[in-house]
Amino acid sequence: MLKINDLHASVEEKEILKGINLEVNAGEVHAIMGPNGSGKSTLAAVIAGKEEFEVTKGNVVLDGEDLEDDAPEDRAHKGVFLSFQYPVEIPGVSVTNFMKTAINESRKAKGLEDMPANQMLKLIREKAELLEIDRKFLSRSLNEGFSGGEKKRNEIFQMAMLEPKLAILDETDSGLDIDALRIVANGVNKLKSKDNAVIVITHYQRLLEYIVPDFVHVLHNGKIVKSGGKELALELEAKGYDWIKQEATV
Amino acid sequence: MDLKDKLISSFMAFENNVDIDHPVHDVRTEAMKNFEQKGFPSKKEEAWKYTSLNSLQKIDFSIFPKGNSTLDYKDVKKYFIHDIDTYKIVFVDGVFSSHLSETTHDGVDICLMSSALTKPMYKQIIDVYFNKVASRDESLTTLNTAFSREGAYIYIPKNKMPKKPVEIVHFATGNEASLMLQPRNLIVVEENAELQIIERHQSLTKNEVLTNCVTEIFAAKSANIDYYKVQNDAATASLIDNTYINQKSKSFVNVHTFSFGGKLTRNNLNFYQNGEYMDSTMKGITILGERQHVDHHTLVHHIEPNCESHQDYKGIYGENSTGVFNGKIIVDKVAQKTNAFQQNNNILISDKATINTKPQLEIFADDVKCSHGCTIGQLDEDAMFYLQSRGIPEKEARALLMYAFANNVLESVRIPELKARINKLIANKLGVNMGFDL
Q1: CB-CB neighbors (< 8 A) of B404 in chain A
Q2: pLDDT (tens digit per residue) in A146-173
Q3: Do B378 and B42 contact (CB within 8 A), yes or no?
Q4: Which residue of A has its CA nearest to B409?
Q5: What is the ipTM of this complex?
Q6: B381/A73 Cβ within 8 A
Q7: How many domains does chain A have?
C-alpha cells in the first residue's frame, strides 16, 4: 500500500530525514519509535504533505502512485490520515460542521454528491459513540478549550469519520491518562481491517500494549536503524535508546 | 470649481435664499463658517495621515439631487433584513421613499429628520438634542450640519421598546453621474428604553457616490442601544461616517461595524460617557480586497468613574487594500475605576495590502484598568496544514481560518437573521460556500 523509497527531507536547508525506506501493506500495523529529534514527526508530516518540508531525494508512493505533487488535501482524498500530536484550535467552527465540510469535500473530490444530512448525523452519532464522545462535545468549537485527552479522542473520531486507508498516529498517546488511552486504542482497533493500515508513532511502549504492532522500526538521526517484531518495543522500553544509538554509530 | 467651492456656493444659494426662516438656519450658517475656514481635512492632519480625500474632491458631485428616482421593493429587497419584520426609514438619492419605508408614531417616533426639524411638535426635542453631541469644530461634521435637512429621526420615550428593529437604508440609483449625500440622523433613547438599528448605504450602479453622514445618539439612564452598520457598498461608493454618542449612567450602547466593501470608508465613532456604571462597546469586522480602503477612528471619553469600554476590531486585508485603526481612549482625572479594553487584530493575506494600527491612550486617573493590543499577522501555516490534511482544499481552509479569526465579533450580534446575513456576506467575500452557515 505505502512504499517509502530512500526519502530525504529538509527544513530550511537542514536535512532531517536521511534516507528512509519503509513498506507498509494493507492489514498491517507498524510502530515507529525513536528518541526525541530523530525525525518521527517529520516523517509523519512529509507523508501527509506538509509543505514546510522539502523532499530532496526519494519518494512516497501510495498504491503505486507517487504523492510528490499532491497537496495535503489530495493525499487526504486518496486515504491518508494524520492524527496530530498538537491538534489546532479553530474557534467558531463546531466539530460537527468541521466534519461535514471535511467529508463533503472528500466526496466532492471523488465526484460524489454531498452526504444527505440525516445520513451524516447518523454517521456522526455512531462514530462518536465508538469514541465515547458526548453529544454536547460535537457542537463545541473544534479543539477550543479541549483537554489533551479530548483533543486526541477527537482526532481518532475524525479518523473514524473519514475511514482512511492509511492512518498515521503521531504521538497519540502523549497527554492521555490510562482511561483515555484505552478508549483511543479501542477505537483504533475497531477501525482496523484487512484493507487499511496504521502507522503508530510513539516514544513509549505504553500505547503498543493496546495497539499491537506487526512491525516495530527504530528511527534515529533521520534513518531507520533497526526493525523487528513487537518484541523490539519491549526491548527498547527495558534498555532505552542508548544501545540503538551506539549500534547505529558503529 | 473644486468641491469645497461648490459646496459653499450651493449653500449660499439654498440656505440664504430659500431656507432663511428655517428653525436651524443659524446652526447651519455657523457650521458652514467653520467648514469654510477649515475645508476638507488633508493628510497633514494627524487624524487623516493615512486617508486622503484629494481624489474625491476632484469629482463634480451633485449636491442637491433631482430626487425623482423610484425603486421597486423587489429590486432592492436583498439589501434589507427581509426575513424579519422591521421598521424602515429608506432614502433614494437622499429623498425619503415613503413606499419603501415603514415609519411609526405609535408610542415611539421612527420617522424623518425633515419633519422633526420643521414641525413645532418636535421643537422641544430638537432644541435639547440637535447638534449637541456632534462636533462643532470637526470640518466634515460641520459640513454635514450646514446641509442637515434629511435623515432618520428616532425618539423612544421612557421605558419603551419598539416592537422590531429599525433599518435605515440609503440607496443611490445612479440617476446622477456623481452624487454627494449628507444624511443627518438624530436618535434619542430615553430612560430604560431600548432600540436596535441596522444602517446601510447602498449604491446600485458604478456611478460615484460620496456620503458624509452624521448620526447623533443620546442614551439616557439605563437605556440600551444596539447599532449595526453594514458597509458593503459598490467599488465606486465612499462613505464618511461620523457617529457621536452621548451616554448617561447605567446605559449600554453597542456599535458593530461590518466593513466589506466600498471605495473609501472612514468611520469616526465617538463615545462620551457622561455618567457612571455604563458600558460602551465597539466591535468591527473588516474584510477588504481590490483597492478598498477603510479607516476606523474610535474615541471613548471616560468622563466619570466606574465605567467600561470594550473595543474589538478584526481586519482581513487582501490584494491592494489598505486599513487604518486608530483607537483613542481618554480617561479624565476623576474617572477612577475605569475599565477600558481595546483590541485590534489583523491578518494580511496579500503582500500588497497595508494596515496602520495605533492605540492612543490618554489616561489622567490613577486607579484604572486599561489594556490595548494590536497584532498584524498571516494565517497560521500549521492550522492550514491541519485543515488540508482533513481533505479541506486550500481556499476553503483559508476561509475557515479567517472566519474563525473574526468569529468572536459576531457572537454579540443579537439579531439572529442579521447574524446569518453577515455570515453569508463573509462567505461571499471570502469566495467560499462552506455547506453550512459560517
Answers
A1: 90-93
A2: 998 899 999 999 999 999 999 999 999 8
A3: no
A4: A92
A5: 0.95
A6: no
A7: 1
